[in-house]
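Assemble and predict.
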Amino acid sequence: MSQRTERRRGIHVDQSDLLCKKGCGYYGNAAWQGLCSKCWREEYQRVRQKQIQDDWALAEKLQREEEAAYASSQGAQTQSHSQSTPPQTGHASLGPFSKFEEKKTNEKTRKVTTVKKFFSPSSRTPPKKETQEAKTPSPSVSRHASFETEQVSKDFVDFLKNLQKPGREIHKQCRAFIVNMSSKKELGADELSECVQDFYQNMSDRLMSHFKGSSDSVEQVMDQVEKYIMTRLYKSVFCPEITDDEKKDLATQDRIRALHWVTIQMLCVSMDEEIPEVSDNVLKAITNIIEMDSKRVPRDKLACITRCSKHIFSAIRITKKEPASADDFLPSLIYIVLKANPPRIQSNIQYITRFCNPSRLMTGEDGYYFTNLCCAVAFIEKLDAQSLNLSAEEFERYMSGQASPRISSSEADWPHAGPTPAVTATNPVLTQLNHNLELLSGLSSRQESLMAAARSLQADLQAWPERVQREVHSILEKYPLEVMSCTASAIDANNMDNDNLPSPLTPQVFAG
Amino acid sequence: MAAGGTGGNGGKTYSFKVVLLGEGCVGKTSLVLRYCENKFNDKHITTLQASFLTKKLNITGKRVNLAIWDTAGQERFHALGPIYYRDSNGAILVYDITDEDSFQKVKNWVKELRKMLGNEICLCIVGNKIDLDKDRHVSVEEAESYAESVGAKHYHTSAKISKGIEELFLDLCKRMMDTAQAEERLKGNGASQSASGRRGVQIVDDEPQATPAGGCCSSG
């Protein structure tokens, strides 16, 4: 565990430092004095055996001394009573000694677990005061509890409340199972898987008889049971140190990194990332597959894979305008896995196969997508020149980083690559970038011309009133204002017929 | 999609997994789309994908949930076959009657399936595209006699003109039910339930060994 964290943080550690000090070829662990788990156990057993033998030897020696002392002092009968006890203390010293030994063992194992805890990802959330876990008999179970487990316990209890009496029974069994599992830390991964699967089987059989064959309610309860026990067991059974899951994880991760040059065209993926909606779906698919590592429950991990697959299907559907077949889907999923390089992919796959409720994994839709993911990873592991339609030399050159496929393969492999095949073939993101750059430069030139036009318009506008004024002036100059003098006359001055008119009427005055 | 286990004693529901195998372009996808959606090359196909489809059937009063797993047919994915077809109850091996090569591929698949899964799996060999009978390159007699020689049933279908597909799936379901019932009788009624459940688990445990072995054999 520790060496993984070291790698992740980028501390350079020589490969040989990580290996078991005994040279058995497995990785060692600082907590086990640089030995691997197996050698450590052997070594530890040996030391312990020796210690016990030494203790015995010491005890026997003491007893002999005591007996000798007792024999020599036999003459003095008065002291015999008080002296008769030492032989017993000799024997009794065995007790404390072995106790001491036990204590030491405990201390050692605890040290290992604390080291583990220190490196494990959820050590950020320190174990909190637990109300429910406090009752659990085994301290090692409650010690692993964190906020998440507390939450899941609460949910589980809430869910079971609806079931009343059988609910309590289920809860009791699950708790007993978890306690039981925590005492089986030494078992191999396959045995652990066997235990969990047996538990699922027994539980679902019992539920089946309880619900009288209603498989829907059984499934509902089983989902909750899975959620509860796997959240609680997650830390001890995910990527256990006994297995080489971790080694495989690193190998796959390196493999995917080495394959960074694989293009979408080499895999014959029918997703056109130049369509914005498609690239959107691709990004979401990548996010989902990476998110898988953060889930604890196998079913939640499966759900991430399913969401990822759905996004891939959308992307294919948009590109091809017809429903995606497996012929389209698998290459696309491979492409997504290559692009995402999901963390701890092998461990996750192993975890799901070992601890998922089999009814879900075997026949359902989730199972199909999971199987495809397994196929994608298997394909990436075995990928060779032939599977990419490349010649062996080409493949070698790309793998060693001597050449990159951008120019050599693009014209041959992809006839409809468009005006810039060399760039298109390398990386769809680059293509998009280039495309956007072109758009931008076009836009800026258009804006420039717009600005120029605006400026000329402004100049025109400023010139216009001047011009108008000038014109007005010129016109005014050409036709100066002439004021004509004219004689004013009364309205009826020119009236000739004035004389012919009768004299105006005079008002008549009447006296009162 | 309650792909519930083969549980319950009275109203029994069978859940079967069927894999579709065959070279690319032989019409595997069209076949299932015709069966599940009754559509062919249609712009109105509603499903997002045609690689995992389910169908619920009722055969002589027994409920059957069929999960049809499409597989990638490209040659480069051939080695991944075992991961797909483990645990399946039936396999539909599709070839194109106008393409001799695709029939050869079917023969390879049959050999592999029999080697890996024995006789527990029901095999169907399907000659698709019989609407193109004038371009036929695989003779009817050859195909049928071959199918008989390996204990498989042979069918002629056309997804385009919708022919022979219902019969194919119905027949396959019946055969799978027979196999399942025979298996049950063999193991006794009481143990059957847990036995069928455990079967899956044990095969899961085998996976790490089985996968690389299959890969090596078929690629080498």
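Residues 1-9, 77-144, 407-424 of chain A have pLDDT under 50 and may be disordered.
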